[in-house]
Amino acid sequence: LTLDKDEILEIYLNQIYFGSGAYGIAEAAMTYFGKPVGELSVAEAALIAGLPPAPSRRSPHNDPEAAEANRRAVILRMRETGRLSRSAASAALAENVEV
Question: With a threshold of 0.90, does the pTM exceed it?
């Protein structure tokens, strides 16, 4: 069986722990935002993306300040690497994320 990077990432994201009892990115989207992954805003997705290194400690349910700091770091890194335009990054940083 040979998998490309995108397939490996998909498998990984569908199995890892995101905190608050959520395993997999789809469950994390529902747990934190009550919506499917495809409906997440950039800011919401960035919050979830910041969880895997320490999901319980970075959970917005356990430490909203840590979750916010990680969300901002993910957005800024996406901007630095060209994944987000300056205007999209500014809009994501300005978004009030409600968990």
Answer: yes
